[in-house]
Write a structure and sequence with these properties.
Structural class: alpha/beta
Strand order of the largest sheet: 10-11-9-12-13-14
Shape: elongated
Distance between the termini: 71 Å
Number of helices: 9
Number of strands: 18
Largest sheet: 6 strands, mixed
Strand content: 15-25%
Order of helices and strands: EEEEEEEEEHEEHEHHEHEHEEHHHEE
Length: 424
């Protein structure tokens, strides 16, 4: 089964907690702090693999999570780092963060590897907070949680040229005539339910990959028919070959058919409408096609389109068409990729420098990395140190926050292992 879209959840491993521990030996009853650091959490990587053809595996496994880091231990033993995971996807897969729609990674080359979620940092043990002033810290850091994302996987075929057109105009027949592909061919709409790829062995330059995109209908850009499922597959192509039934076998107007496809391409993506395009007037082996060919040439050659009459059934004009496609492909950029515009850098301004909360015991608890560092490097047993401590609480807005939460004179405030009575 060809699966080209999937939604999964990816999550990095959380960092392990730092340990609070003090050395105890036979002759050392009151040793110093020896709590080790927690291990970092594992990260999530995405890898492009040419041996994978569809996204079917993600139909059954929707959550991918790296291993968490282990907690720190006694005797300054650090916790083990969590194992990374590598998610393998087909070449050509675009990964988008679901809520923003921004591109996290475009896996356009075999073997490409991209970090999607970095594991959480392990917390520091209490041995890290020991100083000449505070020789027995009784606190450590918690491990940092890793980020979690809901992402969309979208497989966009890697093809140099794409065949587009309404259903039953001969795209599959043409592909079978000029490549080694064997698509299903029959005279009814939506015979092709999956894109087909074939390699054109060109006498006019390097070989190139040709994709038969399933028949589009009016409203495809809004999801009608199979529009959404397949329009994305031509976003990487360097040139579009628009096949039209010049014989109008089903009583349709070839000019109206061309405009239908043009409108759908433009509505889905302006970049599609701007791609180089050749109009291949097919079924020229049928006499009625001659008059319509003149109408197509008159309408579209003045607009800069190259019109090539062909018959996919007899092979007429196919070499000319392939030569034209090869020339455009050779002049086009080597790779067509999607800009990676997703930024997962933490917003430091959004991270509060401290938090104040009041547990059930009625004591106000202040925590935060900045507060923790200030205590670790300040001698609170001196008058100057206490003055600095009080100024820090005022300048950082901690006093204001305590008052906002209802602290009054005489209430107990705790900052890690230090407690004091609150007074204005």
């Amino acid at each position: 089964m060809f699966i080209d879209k999937a939604k999964i959840t990816i999550r990095g491993g959380a960092g392990g907690d730092g340990a609070v521990s003090f050395y105890r030996g036979k002759y050392v009853p009151n040793g110093g702090p020896d709590g080790g650091d927690g291990g970092d959490g594992g990260s999530v990587y995405i890898v492009a693999d040419k041996n994978i053809a569809t996204l079917m595996d993600f139909k059954y496994k929707r959550t991918h999570e790296a291993e968490s880091g282990e907690a720190g231990g006694k005797k300054n033993c650090s916790g083990k780092k969590g194992a990374d995971i590598r998610i393998r996807v087909p070449v050509g897969t675009v990964i988008r963060e679901e809520s923003s729609g921004k591109v996290m990674a475009d896996m356009s080359l075999d073997g490409m590897e991209k970090l999607l979620v970095k594991g959480g940092r392990g917390g520091r043990g209490n041995a890290r907070f020991a100083t000449a002033v505070r020789q027995a810290p009784r606190y450590s850091e918690k491990g940092k949680p890793a980020r979690e994302y809901r992402v969309n996987l979208d497989l966009k075929l890697i093809a140099d040229a794409g065949l587009v057109g309404l259903p039953n105009v001969g795209k599959s027949t043409l592909l079978s005539m000029v490549t080694n592909a064997n698509p299903k061919i029959a005279n009814y709409h939506f015979t092709t339910l999956t894109p087909n790829l074939g390699v054109v062995r060109s006498n006019h330059g390097a070989d190139f990959v040709l994709a038969d995109i399933p028949g589009l209908i009016e409203g495809a850009s809004q999801g009608a028919g199979l529009g959404f499922d397949f329009l994305g597959h031509i976003e990487r192509t360097k040139v579009l070959c628009h096949i039209v039934d010049a014989a109008a076998i089903e009583g349709n107007d070839p000019l109206a058919d061309i405009e239908t496809i043009n409108a759908e391409l433009a509505a889905y993506s302006p970049s599609l409408a701007a791609k180089p395009r050749i109009i291949a007037a097919n079924k020229m082996d049928i006499p009625e096609a001659a008059d319509n060919l003149e109408r197509i040439i008159s309408a579209y050659e003045p607009k800069g389109f190259r019109i090539i009459p062909i018959s996919a059934a007899t092979g007429e004009g196919l070499q000319t068409l392939m030569s034209e496609l090869a020339g455009i492909i050779q002049a086009a950029p080597d790779e067509i990729t999607f800009s990676e515009d997703f930024d997962d850098t933490p917003d430091l301004k959004a991270s509060p420098p401290f938090t104040v909360h009041k547990p059930h015991d009625g004591c106000y608890v202040v925590s935060g990395i900045g507060v923790e560092k200030m205590i670790g490097y300040t001698n609170l047993d001196t008058e100057a140190g206490m003055a600095f401590f009080q100024k820090y609480l005022r300048d950082r807005g901690i006093i204001a926050e305590l008052e906002r939460q209802g602290a009054i004179d005489g209430d107990t405030v705790k900052i890690y292992d230090m407690e004091f009575d609150y007074y204005k």
